[in-house]
Amino acid sequence: MAARQTNPRAQSDRPGVGEPLSSAALQRRIDEEVGRAERHGTMLSCLLVVVENLDEIAYEHGPELSGQTLSYIAGALAGELRRFDRIGHPSAEELAIVLPGADSPSGEAVARRILERVQAIKIESRGTRLPLELSVGLAAWRENMAPHELLARARVAAARQDGDDPPSVPAPGEERRGGAELPGHAPSAS
What we know:
By secondary structure, this protein is α+β, with helices and mostly antiparallel strands. The chain is built from five helices and eight strands; from the N terminus they run βαβααββαβββαβ.
């Protein structure tokens, strides 16, 4: 795999962001941040970046390339995050970014920077440039929202943005508050 990026920032230059969290560690972090938001009345958002064609890349170019691609994207995104933001792998095709203190407009600004950053990434295999098809979903935490709902709502927003039928997320006392779709879809990063 050859991967090139413009204006790279070394992940080591971003203290605190570090390696992506595992699914379990990511959920613990979301639990902690929701608790903090409840106690202090602060804002919290979560972005979900889905690489829609990762299975296709794995099929055509091998599973190791798809894994390297997701890791590479995570490393490239670390330069766009604050030192206390966290990135993790909720699944094999997704990256979640926990944004403490960020409301929906702030989360949208981060999402736009992330899309621009990923579009600058060049993934190549055997001399062929591989496009990346992305969906990005944003969810903002609201009072009385359970921690697991934050990521679930971001997943719903990403599915809506991609044109899929979004999965249902029941929320006691709420009617789809807390999730937001982002305009635009990054069909390729060439």
